[in-house]
Amino acid sequence: MKDEILTYLPQGDWEEKIHWFDSLDSTNNEAKRLAAAGAPDGTLIISIHQTGGRGRMGRSFQSPAGMGVYISLLMRPGVKPEQLMHLTCAAGLYSCQGVEAATGFLPKVKWINDLIAGKQKLGGILTEMSVSTATGLVEYAIVGVGVNCGQTPQDFPPELREKATSLLQVTGQEVSLPRLAAAMALSLTRMNQELLPRKKAIMEGYKNLCVTLHQPVQLLRGEECIPGYALDLDEDGGLIVSFPDGSQRTVNSGEVSVRGMYGYL
Q: N or C: which end of the chain has fewer CB within 10 A?
């Protein structure tokens, strides 16, 4: 399938950049292995099956064979970690744009790392990084994206059928996995180039797609559930929440999970 992916990409060094797998544990894990072996900035790992797909906070991500596109980008930005606080938001924006380029359908995002269609999850993002103890700089960052493509409701476990969807269900058409993989590779590569110089524009683009804003939310921390209202995002992607007592606080994705007051959103 790698050769098919390459036919959808413009001229360039894609043959060297893309590492293709029919199946592997996870594209993020492979990106880490390649990073340890010295793989350069811009390396892409693509598969159509993961045996151990992961989401945020250690959750599993269903990655059945031939039903989706799973892609990771290895970045070597050489900056301080605090300069990449908006990386997950950027990945959300550029992933949505990649899906739109391949299918004509533009997903929205649920803060901070879910691609959605309507009120159902279409895909997910997992960002990870390694920081040098010697320099304090980021040795590498990894952006992993999984997009559900070919599933019917019956392909999801019963507990997920009301919460998850696929591009097939959303568009009513089969999705070309090579075409989507190429569009995602191109979009994430563009993100890597624009991440730092276009931070303000990226955050505005993300806000425009974020369905969490201006909605009642529940902040979930362990067994604790705190009601609030999502007001805005700060410049780094932190969620600014107001609470019933009139106070406001900015929360980040490492602290809490966010759910809407009703259902998945």
A: N
Specify the pLDDT at position 253.
Answer: 76
The whole-number pLDDT of residue 85 equals 96
Least Cα distance to 43 among 54, 56, 22, 28 occurs for: 28
CA distances from 115 to 97, 99, 142, 191 (A): 11, 10, 18, 16
DSSP type of residue 253: T
pLDDT < 50 regions, the chain: 56-57
Q: Tell me, what's the pLDDT at 264?
A: 60
**In this predicted structure, what is the pLDDT of residue 61?**
59
In the numeric block, the tokens 């045996």 are attached to 51
What are the residues facing 131 on neighbouring strands?
A: 138
Chain centre to alpha carbon of residue 133: 27
Report which DSSP code applies to 40: P
C-beta separation of 113 from 56 below 8 A: yes
Could you count the other beta carbons within 10 Å of the beta carbon of residue 75? 23
DSSP 163: T
Residue (of 132, 93, 67, 40) closest to 31 by Cα position: 40
